[in-house]
User: What shape does this take?
Amino acid sequence: MTIVSRWAALVLLLWPALALAEARPVWVQGLHSRVRLLSGGPAGEHRLAGLEIELDRGFKTYWRQPGEAGLPPRFDWSGSANVGEIRVLWPAPKRLEDAAGVSYVYGPRVVLPLKVRVPDPGRPAHLRLVLEYGVCKEICIPARAELSLDLAAAESPADRRLIEEAGLARVPRPLPLGGEGPLSVVSVAREPGTDKPTYRVSVRGPGGATLFGEGPEEWFVDTSPPRGDGAFTVTIDGKPKDARGPALLRLTLVAGADAVETEVHLDEDLTPR
Assistant: This one.
């Protein structure tokens, strides 16, 4: 066998590995961080993907509701091809209280699972994302990254495992108010005699659990640490002047690796129902 034919045989032998390497998701370097898109393959009627953010030591980024300080991620998928609805799933955050106030954060790494609807499964599907996100140590700085991913070409068992174990496994489970189980939101009651709508939220769970409260867009909701009786206080600090009920209050209860999400509807006078 000649040297040329040996090289040709070697290239043919390595071609599948080389093609996979070229298709692997590429890191995009950002401000004190790096980000990439992951493809996890088919998932029922959707395709499973993920957004991974790694941060430099001591830095953090923010949940969908950043708290008193910080910038939530913003997603622009308009450049994608053969892609319909993209649903972002949110792993439970951590509560951080410092001189800037209370914020809800991720770090040093987070994987946001993505459920992607592909209108025509017989055609290639391509994700293109312009991501804006906050990166913070002492102060919060906006960061931006442009990412793209061919969903079919980049499929990898390792990526799917990462999306499932670091992402999906940490997404809170939906649970109705008063639902059964070791971790649940038991009741929500309006506190009388308060200037702002304030609620006592009773929970079932171990000590050290954390509650995160969210209202509709442009509402400001403050959630206390656990009170002495194990309950939490949720206060609506502000809302648009023209806001009218009923409104949706979303409560995320986190204890270690377990987390549940409960939705409570508030009537026009902001009482639970």
Observations:
- Confidence is low (pLDDT under 50) at residues 4-23.
- Residues 96 and 103 are 5 Å apart (CA to CA).
- The first strand starts at residue 28 and ends at 30.
- The chain has two domains: 23-171, 174-266.
